[in-house]
TrEMBL record:
This is PTS sugar transporter subunit IIC. The lineage of its organism: Bacteria, Bacillati, Bacillota, Bacilli, Lactobacillales. Coiled coil: none annotated. It comes from the Bacteria. Its main location: membrane. It is found in: Cell membrane. GO terms for biological process: phosphoenolpyruvate-dependent sugar phosphotransferase system. Signal peptide: none annotated. InterPro entries: GatZ_KbaZ_carbometab, PTS_IIC_man. GO terms for cellular component: plasma membrane. It is a multi-pass membrane protein. Keywords: Cell membrane, Membrane, Phosphotransferase system, Sugar transport, Transmembrane, Transmembrane helix, Transport.
Amino acid sequence: MLLSAIIVGIIAVFSSWKPSHLLTRTWDYPIVTGTLVALAMGDPVNGMQAAAYINLAYLGWITAGGTMPGNLPVAAVFGTAMTILSGADPSLAVGFAVPFSLFGILTNQLTMSLNALWVHKAEEFLDKGNITGMRLMNFVPSGILNTLVVGIPAFVLVYFGAEPMQNLLNMIPDSFVEALQVVGALMPALGIAMLLSFMGKKKIMPFYFLGFLLTVYLKFDVMAITGLAAVMGVVFYNTGFLDIKPKSKGA
């Protein structure tokens, strides 16, 4: 469990540490971060299912105009870890993730505020021509700060949290668990609805319902539908069926 706790702590730091997003922005997606946590904790199946539920809940969430409706990396790491530690059904992952997501907003505000201090120090190094010092101030202090506010709590949760979380789960009334299951079922639907609210166009919506029919009535799996969608996308793009192919300059 010590090794798992260390790895989860590292995942929590890198997923919340903005410089790591220069390597990949997939840290922002709970399905990716939660899956890594699940692998680190040795329960990939339930963990990936929990991460998928969390990802669906936040599918249509965006940080527009400086607003931050939730901290997705924190929700993914802590929500998935809590689900695995407590042995809860993956559908309850959203109920675990939402409080941690709101907690993540506070940690993000704290780190963003304190990181402003390092920027001024980096400018001082730059004025003196010390490029190495400037680079260190851009990466090292923010990494240490993320380790303190996110990494260590994630480590503590995984290393010490199994038995306390199980006891806490056993103390929860069945009616409350059922309520969490209902919320967990509604949140993914809300996330999809939010996504469709700004993606829903007359030319695109028929394909959404086509995918629904293929899944529900013809029992196509996700890979089959994805392959079919890719083929249709290439054909429609090349034929200009949906008027999405760029027009040539000579036209």
